[in-house]
User: Which sequence fits this backbone?
């Protein structure tokens, strides 16, 4: 169950970084409060999850305007036009030249391939996008949860730990800091803080120094 829960967390975070939330996602976050449910036993994360959901609920009477604000902030941070305030790719954060499809992108691609996976838009979209990395971490957790033996589970657990150490821990904190500093909406500030706190929790939970 623990690895299944981890998978839900990663996939939920990936969904919120993949694109700006539409009306259906905002309604679910406000009414069903899935983030509060996911983090209800984590004292460090629960308050931020509650604040994020409360911010959405506070804007339910102006949903069109709120969605427009989130769309504008999402584009400013991650899409453009103009210089991105929080580039969502590992290679940009870890290379001196801040280039897409750099050596770190290729390393992430190789990591996916080592588990038999290939990004759907490999040639058009860098595999080291924050949403794809979160989805992959969630997939590894899901495979660990579904494993038929401790030995099989161990392969995915070790892969999960290695991916965190070699990739996510090396750049996602800086990315989240950029989002938190540059966002004009509470939604993306809280999402960045929540993601950073989750990785802090993971570092301790999977026994990484």
Assistant:
């Amino acid at each position: 169950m623990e690895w299944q829960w981890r998978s839900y967390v990663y996939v939920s975070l990936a969904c919120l970084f993949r694109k700006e939330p539409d009306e259906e996602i905002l309604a679910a976050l406000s009414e069903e409060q899935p983030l509060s449910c996911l983090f209800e036993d984590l004292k460090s994360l629960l308050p931020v999850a509650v604040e994020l959901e409360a911010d959405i609920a506070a804007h339910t009477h102006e949903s069109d305007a709120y969605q427009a604000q989130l769309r504008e902030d999402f584009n400013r941070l991650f899409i453009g036009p103009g210089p991105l305030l929080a580039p969502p790719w590992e290679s940009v954060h870890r290379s001196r030249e801040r280039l897409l499809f750099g050596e770190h992108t290729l390393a992430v691609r190789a990591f996916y391939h080592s588990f038999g996976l290939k990004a759907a838009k490999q040639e058009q979209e860098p595999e080291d996008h924050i949403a794809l990395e979160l989805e992959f971490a969630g997939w590894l957790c899901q495979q660990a949860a579904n494993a038929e033996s401790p030995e099989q589970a161990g392969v995915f657990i070790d892969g999960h730990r290695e991916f965190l150490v070699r990739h996510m821990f090396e750049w996602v904190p800086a990315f989240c800091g950029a989002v938190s500093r540059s966002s004009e909406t509470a939604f993306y500030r809280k999402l960045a803080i929540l993601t950073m706190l989750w990785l802090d929790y993971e570092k301790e939970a999977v026994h990484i120094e």
